[in-house]
Design a protein that fits this description.
The protein is mostly helical and 171 residues long. It has one domain. Helix content is 75%, strand content 4%. A two-stranded antiparallel sheet has the order 1-2. The relative contact order is 0.20.
Length: 171
């Protein structure tokens, strides 16, 4: 628990748990499992390069798209977190939990889609190393955009101030 202001105490770990578990499944476990399947296929089935010499250019194109998606995810998270998440002050902690999950879910899916470029690249070229680079970039972007306790405490404070001013979700 963390003391925010006066006698208000909120269990930040509880608020963070649902969105963090969802993000871990989508951004870490699923991409790691698919990367393992790519590694297994590369070592046992020796997939062919279907696009020939375009493979390098395609990798750079996918890398640029992945960086753009990473920037979009970072911007979108900031925008979603600036909007009201609280329905009523009486149910602040539960509203905060649901609001954080609602705001984090599309950002987590956008970050997870970065690894999708790696799998598409693997299916087209059979190159595992470049696939791993794109998946690793999605892991790094997940670390950049995932909510942390310090940023969550600031978000809770900001949402509390917005709720006290009457800026509630749905109004």
């Amino acid at each position: 628990m963390s003391l925010l202001s006066g006698d208000d105490k909120y269990d930040l770990h509880h608020i963070l748990a649902k969105s963090l578990y969802f993000a871990l499944m989508v951004n870490v476990l699923l991409p790691a499992a698919l990367l393992y399947l790519c590694h297994y296929a590369a070592n046992n089935y020796f997939p062919e390069n279907r696009i020939g010499e375009l493979a390098n250019s395609l990798f750079y194109l996918f890398a640029v798209v992945a960086v753009a998606q990473g920037g979009l995810a970072w911007w979108w998270q900031r925008k979603l977190f600036a909007q009201p998440m609280i329905v009523s002050i009486e149910s602040f902690e539960e509203d905060m939990t649901v609001g954080l999950l609602r705001a984090s879910r599309p950002v987590s899916l956008l970050v997870a889609s970065i690894s999708g470029w790696g799998y598409v690249y693997f299916l087209l070229t059979g190159r595992f190393r470049e696939t791993a680079v794109l998946v690793l970039f999605s892991f790094i972007m997940y670390q950049v955009v995932r909510p942390r306790l310090g940023s969550l405490q600031k978000l809770v404070t900001r949402q509390k101030q917005m709720a006290e001013k009457g800026q509630l979700l749905g109004r």
